[in-house]
Hints:
Pathway: Purine metabolism; IMP biosynthesis via salvage pathway; IMP from hypoxanthine: step 1/1. The protein has a 6-stranded mixed β-sheet with strand order 4-3-2-5-6-7, with helices on both faces. It has a 3-stranded antiparallel β-sheet with strand order 1-9-8. The chain has a domain of 136 residues: Rossmann fold, CATH 3.40.50. By secondary structure, it is an alpha/beta fold. Strand 5, helix 4 and strand 6 form a beta-alpha-beta unit. Helix 2 packs across helix 3.
Amino acid sequence: METRLAQREAGCCKMGATQSVQAVEHEQTKDLTKVLFTEEEIKTCVNQMGKRISEDYAGKNPLVVGVLTGGYVFMSDLARTITVPHVVDFVKCSSYGSGTESSGKVKFQLETSHSIEGRHVIVVEDIIDTGLTLSNLVAHLSTMGPASIEVASLLDKKARRKVEVKAKYVGLECPDEFVIGYGLDYDGAYRSLPMIGILKPEVYS
């Protein structure tokens, strides 16, 4: 017993640690020109959205579909705030290349593992940008016979819109800047930042 306790105390996550999440410094924040939304602001937004969804989908057992890869952080947090029974699933599609501009071509790389037919579906996206990816995804899922399909997006960057899309649940309005953090990336980096900020142009130019 004493050996097990000693091994636990020697681990990286020690019981009784007082350092808060907010106190953790992230080296990658040096690449931000400014923080748009703090960790606390995002948390408040996610909680409010989860409450709305819980009220709207009481008794409907919705299928909550997260869009990978960018939406994985938001999806994880949002799902835990939805208090009514629901099923979690994922899809993966993208219209982005390796830089900051959309390629304009949508690729479907992963389909849902659960049947959509007759289900109330909520598509969870990190950001609505050009609308190309989301509009194609919604159209694709709609062919599978869902009872209903709605979109929940943390961010909405209206200035970049090329295709009109309808999102019932939108968290925060985003300026026309290249933003990273909380799942959003630049070439795979910065997803783990707990806040959302504007990336310095010299990083990607």
